[in-house]
TrEMBL record:
GO terms for molecular function: heme binding; metal ion binding; oxygen binding. Residues 132-153 are annotated as: Disordered. Coiled coil: none annotated. It comes from Ilumatobacter coccineus (strain NBRC 103263 / KCTC 29153 / YM16-304). Signal peptide: none annotated. Keywords: Heme, Iron, Metal-binding, Transport. This is Hemoglobin.
């Protein structure tokens, strides 16, 4: 990713609406799909991009804006299978690097900060659950997702 110009930095806003979340998701997967490490994972999964982008927009709109809508099971979606070898630490690190730098490139503000914190917690928790390892000492050990759905209680 190239360094941002002053004009680009000045033009950033926070993640406020579903449209912003969708833009984040689109930009993130643009980088992820082209990435030398992550790209082959998505290619091997034969990802239906319009559907995946809609699902991930639902997921992050739930996480960051509290909107209902996401119906999936993220952990199951990342389990190794006969078609997919397990993700390594390098995959998780790259995923997090790209997600964080996409946010910094496009957005600034409290929700953008929360997105980075949530992504980091979820990536470490997901890694721990999928690999059975306990990971770094300073990483969170609380449940992977907020246990209540937005609007459920
Ligand atoms: C090692 C890093 C990661 C890789 C390589 C990866 C890759 C994938 C792939 C291949 C899918 C399935 C797409 C499809 O079949 O359409 C998927 C789904 C998904 N991923 Fe990841 N992912 C990673 C980390 C994460 C993290 C850390 C999060 C959450 C913060 C996340 C959130 C999701 C969600 C919500 C789905 C959709 C699940 C559903 O179907 O409901 N991923 N990911």
């Amino acid at each position: 990713m190239r360094p941002l110009t002053d004009a680009e930095l000045a033009g950033r806003t926070d993640l406020q609406h579903r449209d912003d979340i969708e833009r984040l998701v689109v930009e993130f997967y643009r980088y992820a799909a082209m990435d030398e490490l992550l790209g082959p994972v998505f290619a091997a999964a034969h990802v239906d991009w319009p559907e995946h982008i809609a699902t991930l927009t639902d997921f992050w709109s739930w996480q960051l804006l509290g909107e209902r809508g996401y119906q999936g099971n993220p952990l199951r979606a990342h389990e190794p299978s006969h078609e997919r070898t397990p993700f390594t630490d390098a995959h998780f690190e790259r995923w997090l690097d790209l997600f964080t730098s996409t946010i910094d490139e496009q957005f600034v503000g409290p929700t953008a900060e929360m997105a980075k914190v949530r992504a980091r917690k979820m990536a470490f928790a997901m890694r721990r659950l999928l690999t059975g390892r306990h990971g770094d000492h300073d990483e969170p050990t609380e449940p992977i997702w907020p246990t209540t759905r937005a609007g459920s209680g």
